[in-house]
Specification:
With 334 residues, this protein is α/β, with parallel strands linked by helices. It has one domain: Thiolase/Chalcone synthase (Peroxisomal Thiolase, Chain A, domain 1, 3-Layer(aba) Sandwich), CATH 3.40.47. The chain has ten helices and 13 strands. It has a five-stranded mixed beta sheet, with helices on both faces. α4 links the parallel β4 and β5.
């Protein structure tokens, strides 16, 4: 495709998918030394959704369903897409990518497809990449998926990790728009690799850095230094929102919704208090779904969209942070 005149990017449709199966705090209390009061006080989480592998559910299934619903919302077919970007840390295989498997599931034909790994930032990273690719003139329509089945990566004897995570997927279909002011008007995708030992998934003992103090979590499962991650997140959350407002000249009043990664209620509440964000502009669903990593922001966008809280002409700011360590923001004129 040849280069074309400047264009914008439209969110043509959104979708999400969550499993029916619920893992409540009471369920966890029967598995590990914890309680509903202890979990709610520290995280704000009451329950989370997890896939039922005995019923054939998988990460790929969640990803497929979310994009299928986004395509339905956009009244488009999978073959209309030039590209599928799938963000996850929990794909069943690295080869083939789950993006290719989703394309096959949806009969997308020769649509390009690749996976992106940025942990909890995956959806926001992918939205930024997709917007840039469409603006380049080389793509007309891109399907973006953020999806994680974190239950497949959790050692449920590890209290510090098992209480936090759930499974979910959120997707969006982005298309070229004639208005160059529509779409992403500011974005940040940054990381600091020096912090990676705070949050990682080792496959072998040699993957564990020397000197890292961690519980005896099973190999292949997520390991986290909760204290370090919390310190990083509580500061970075505020910084990326303040940066997005400063760089664009927007005020809090100009923004319809601040769509934040659902990491921990205390982190979200801290950012709200320090920046002065009103409750009605910061959507929260962590109490019902937990931290679904790459699925988190996309799930929030779909639920806000369906509730009529994000509409054409609105400005929204999406923010996330995650393992890597990574962080990202994306300011959109919807």
């Amino acid at each position: 495709m040849t280069m074309s005149k400047p264009c914008g990017v439209r969110i043509a449709g959104v979708g999400s998918a969550v499993p029916d199966k619920r893992l409540t705090n009471a369920d966890l209390a029967s598995m590990v030394d914890t309680s509903d009061e202890w979990i709610v006080q520290r995280t704000g989480i009451k329950e989370r959704r997890i896939i039922d592998r005995d019923a054939g559910e998988s990460q790929c299934w969640l990803a497929t369903e979310s994009l299928r619903r986004a395509l339905d919302d956009a009244s488009m077919d999978a073959k209309d897409l030039d590209l599928i970007i799938h963000a996850s840390v929990s794909s069943e295989m690295t080869c083939p990518s789950n993006a290719c498997r989703v394309a096959d599931n949806l009969d997308a034909g020769t649509t390009g497809a690749f996976d992106l790994i940025a942990a909890c930032c995956g959806y926001v990273y992918s939205m930024n990449v997709a917007d840039s690719l469409i603006r380049s003139g080389r793509h007309q329509a891109i399907g973006v998926i953020g999806c994680d089945a974190m239950s497949t990566l959790i050692d449920y004897t590890d209290r510090g990790v098992s209480i936090l995570f759930g499974d979910a997927a959120g997707a969006a279909v982005l298309t070229r728009d004639e208005d160059p002011n529509r779409g992403c008007v500011y974005q940040v995708m940054e990381g600091d690799g020096r912090g990676w030992p705070s949050l990682f998934i080792p496959r072998n003992e040699r993957d564990v850095p020397s000197g890292v103090s961690a519980p005896p979590t099973q190999l292949g499962c997520l390991r986290m230094d909760g204290r370090e991650v919390y310190k990083f997140a509580v500061n970075k959350f505020r910084e990326v929102i303040e940066d997005a407002l400063s760089a664009t000249g927007l005020s809090v009043d100009d923004v319809a919704q601040f769509v934040c990664h659902q990491s921990n209620m205390r982190i979200i509440e801290s950012a709200k208090a320090k920046i002065g964000l009103p409750d009605e502009k910061v959507y929260v669903n962590i109490d019902r779904y937990g931290n679904s990593s790459s699925g988190s922001v996309g799930l929030c966008v779909d639920q806000l969209w369906k509730a009529g809280k994000i509409n054409s002409g609105d400005t929204i700011i999406m923010v996330a942070f995650g393992g890597g360590m990574t962080w990202s923001s994306s300011v959109w004129n919807v």
